[in-house]
Amino acid sequence: MSATQAPAKPAPARAPSRWARALDSDLLYSFRRSPLAVGSATVALILILAAVLAPWIAPQDPTNVANLNLLNSFNPPLPLEGSDWTFPLGTDEQGRDVLSAIMFGSRISLIVGAASVIFAVVVGVAVGLLAGYAGGMVDAFLMRAADVQLTFPSILMALLVDGVVSAELPRNLHATFQIYVLIFAIGISRWPQFARTVRGSTLVERNKDYVMAARLIGLGQVRIMATHILPNVLGPVLVLGTLTLGLAILDEATLSFLGVGLPPTQPSLGTLIRIGDDFLFSGQWWVTIFPGVALVLMVLSINLLGDWLRDALNPRLR
Amino acid sequence: MALLEIDNLTVEFPTRRGVLRALDSISLSIEPGEVLGVVGESGAGKSLTGVAVIGLLEPPGRVAGGQIRFDGKRIDNLPYEAMRRIRGRQIGTIFQDPLTTLNPLYTVGHQLVETIQTHLALSDADARKRAIHWLTEVGIPAASQRIDAYPHEFSGGMRQRVVIALALCAEPRLVIADEPTTALDVSIQAQIITLLKRLTRDHGTSVMLVTHDMGVIAETADRVAVMYAGRIAEIGPVAEVVRHPAHPYTEGLMGSIPSLEHRVARLRQIDGAMPRLNAIPRGCAFNPRCPKVFDRCHAERPELLAAGATRAACWLYDAAAAPAAFAPIRGTHA
Amino acid sequence: MPEAPTLEAQDITRMFDVSRPWLQRVLAHEPRLLLRAVDNASFAISRGSTLSLVGESGCGKSTIARMAVGLMPPSGGEIRFEGNPLSTARAQPALRRRMNMIFQDPYASLNPRWRVRDIVAEPIRAFSILSGAQPIAARVGELLVQVGLAAADGEKYPHEFSGGQRQRVSIARALASEPDFLVCDEPTSALDVSVQAQILNLMRDLQQRLGLTYLFISHNLAVVRHVSDRLGVMYLGRIVEQGPAETIFHTPLHPYTRLLLDAIPDLEMVGRSRTPVGGEVPSPIDPPPGCTFHPRCPLANARCREEKPVYTQVGEVQVACHAVAEGREAA
């Protein structure tokens, strides 16, 4: 039976549930059909799960000094000679398992990355909405602030913030607050992109009739922004957020590599790369290469997912 | 011999939920020098017909059956290069929105000359002279200066005139005009329609005029095809279709148009809406909404049958089959 | 004492500042550019009737629509709602809910992320007409049925409906605040002819049943003829002819009204050709002096080029035309 023939009097159906709708959506369909999307999502999921569940599934807890045995130092990875099943990716100069270090390190990288993106999103969306809806001087002021922010490269910004905070805080508090400082520094350098995107969408939505209908019945500005405009401008934010996550993770890795990131007691992937860098050319290459590969895989898979999402959500390409 | 012949053309769009049949076995023809109106509501398939003729069907849409013949030769299965030579030279097009038809980065003259030189072997100077001639023909004042202006420097009506010049400058035999006046003000509409009529008559060009505006058709076309749900409901001379519509849909359509001449208490309305492409009923597509429906309408899809001066796809006109109670209705536009 | 008209506008004007941004303007020594969108318009709509404003693009009818419902204040003149100044009326929720608007674009007038039941319920909640999920849901269902949809349609999102159905949702939303006065801004221009007929019939039914007053904006004279009691023809911000609709259609006086009526492609004109009037609507930023229609008017004389016409009363119709005032009409 061809699709052009209507079935004989279908029974009246209830509107499908949210879940059923989501499963049947065009987005999921296009996801299933794209090997790249499925592939990168799988890789990202594995890495994220490994990072999140690290305290429970990592073979060794690298922060616990009691676990370390100097006799195990500089074990090469499988299947090279001298390797050991308990340390599949080898060990570093203190006998720390590289695989476990990567898992814990990814955890830090992800936490810092995700938190800074959330910070940037909250600030950026709020600023963008306000600028787009209010217009005039408010818009001009906020957008100039965003422009100024954009002139600072994110690394420079982070160094600046870090320097200021280190100077202000007493020494013993540095370690505890370092992670918040880092999140703040990365987030503050990334909010303007979100603000611009949201402002653009807000300008478009603001002139639509449904906003006028809401104004007509006397709803307040804030209520209109939050309930009417916000849901309609979040689409591009999702895409941008995914791509920014990859960038934020790289930012953190760079800062840690430069030595201004997290303290060595909470090594992130960047820190691991830095530590291992010393041994790169003296034969123990695995200490730095494997964390590097993990970083690349994580950022790449997140980026590819973000790319797919952008194309899938673009109404013009459908 | 007819200039354009569309023979049982079927256009399909494969989607993830099945194949959508956007045009279902439609047939029509255009004689040289004739203006054929193709009228219908949104989703009826009228624009798609024009697009299919000109060979600009976007994949995954495809011609799934039938033929399109221009001057006796098949054109629906031509390779890209061959079709490209026909476009512009033999078949010109006018689309609805002059803002997007004209490239904002090039002067009007540049675009005209480019079109002329693509299809006719003329020198730059000759092509420019011809472009100025065409701009004057379509009523652009001071054409020799305006030829170097950019599209945004013209008003809406003037831009559409430029688009008409673009369509006609290579002297095509057929012009496909898709809603040429819909985006324009009423008083400008009248000017553009008059211009189009005059030019096509002077040059003997045939026109396929696609629009939803029955008034424009009534004034401009010689014959009209009324489309519904991807099929032709009725086809015939304009005066007949307007004054004595045979198909119940055409009749309903004419009745729902508010008349300028006098006021009625209540407009005739056809209940319901045109079916979506994935839910076209069995038999005659109009049967759920038809006031004169009977059994056969649900079972079999009607062919175009002779109904007085027009042809209608309606079982009421199959004298052998229609029940005696349903004598063919001659409706008048009240 | 006769009842105050539902809506009355007296000499309203609206200016827009379309100058370039301040810095660029100052650097280029350019003066401020003011656009006169509405020029001293006056009209009154009595209860239960329909006034239509008709004209082409740039004539100011949409601006008047927005001013009539209070979305925009006039730059000059006054608008009164049932005798009270409109700004005062809008400040009081009890009066504010008695006016509402139906928009032209069925695709932009409904929030795509909201379900229909929330869209229709919003005015009910905003004005606290009912409270509690159940009574509100019941009322929304009633409204949907009243406009020809099903109560169950409330669960759907706007994109699941056709253009005509969305307009019905729009009408249901407008009715949710229980208004007396509705401004209809080209409500059927984006719809197919057969759907338009359904919506126009629906609007007429609602007017009769609920005693609504309409200000109907359109560019389509045939539609306007069908719905109006009174009619105002607008050109470049001025109402050039105003009066009972049937009278104007029967005997149009102003040359522009005549031009409009002649220009409409009409079913009755099968086979006939016509000579349309040339020219286009000039830009409202720099309108012609005197009577703004004079460049296109077959009856224009020297006075028309210099002096702006005032209103002449001809029976029940007001016309702003020197030729009419001087009795100079062409055949």
What does this entry show, briefly?
Chain B is an alpha/beta fold and 334 residues long. Chain B contains twelve helices and twelve strands. Chain C is of the alpha/beta class and 331 residues long.
Question: Can you describe what's shown?
Answer:
The complex is a heterotrimer of chains A (318), B (334) and C (331). Chain A is mostly helical and 318 residues long. Chain A has helices at residues 18-24, 26-33, 35-52, 54-57, 98-134, 136-151, 154-168, 171-206, 209-216, 221-258, 269-277, 286-313. Chain A has one domain (34-55, 95-317): MetI-like fold (Orthogonal Bundle), CATH 1.10.3720.10. Chain B has two domains: 4-227, P-loop containing nucleotide triphosphate hydrolases (Rossmann fold, 3-Layer(aba) Sandwich); 229-317, no CATH class. Chain B is built from twelve helices and twelve strands. In chain B, strand 4 and strand 5 form a beta hairpin. Chain C has a domain at 7-98 and 179-265 and 278-325: Rossmann fold (3-Layer(aba) Sandwich), CATH 3.40.50. Chain C contains 13 helices and twelve strands. Chain C starts with 6 loop residues before the first strand and ends in a 6-residue tail after the last helix. In chain C, strand 4 (76-81) and strand 5 form a beta hairpin. Chains in contact: A-B, A-C, B-C. The interface between B and C is large, with 48 and 47 residues.
List keywords for this structure.
heterotrimer; B: 334 residues; alpha/beta; Rossmann fold; 2 domains; 8-stranded mixed beta sheet; 4-stranded antiparallel beta sheet; 12 helices; 12 strands; 22% strand; globular; disordered C terminus; C: 331 residues; 21% strand
Outline the secondary-structure elements.
The complex is a heterotrimer of chains A (318), B (334) and C (331).
Chain A: H1 18-24, H2 26-33, H3 35-52, H4 54-57, H5 98-134, H6 136-151, H7 154-168, H8 171-206, H9 209-216, H10 221-258, H11 269-277, H12 286-313
Helix pairs in contact in A: 3-5, 3-12, 5-6, 5-8, 5-10, 5-11, 5-12, 6-8, 7-8, 8-10, 9-10, 10-11, 10-12, 11-12
Chain B: E1 4-15, E2 18-30, E3 35-39, H1 46-54, E4 62-70, E5 73-74, H2 80-86, E6 91-94, H3 98-101, H4 108-119, H5 124-137, H6 143-146, H7 156-168, E7 174-178, H8 186-203, E8 206-211, H9 214-220, E9 223-228, E10 231-237, H10 238-243, H11 248-256, H12 295-299, E11 305-307, E12 310-312
Parallel strand pairs in B: 3-8, 3-9, 6-7, 7-8
Antiparallel strand pairs in B: 1-2, 1-4, 4-5, 9-10, 10-12, 11-12
Chain C: E1 7-17, H1 22-27, E2 34-45, E3 50-54, H2 61-68, E4 76-81, E5 84-85, H3 86-91, H4 93-96, E6 99-102, H5 116-126, H6 133-146, H7 163-176, E7 181-185, H8 193-210, E8 213-218, H9 221-227, E9 230-235, E10 238-244, H10 245-250, H11 255-263, H12 302-306, E11 312-314, E12 317-319, H13 322-325
Parallel strand pairs in C: 3-8, 3-9, 6-7, 7-8
Antiparallel strand pairs in C: 1-2, 1-4, 4-5, 9-10, 10-12, 11-12
Helix pairs in contact in C: 5-6, 5-7, 6-7
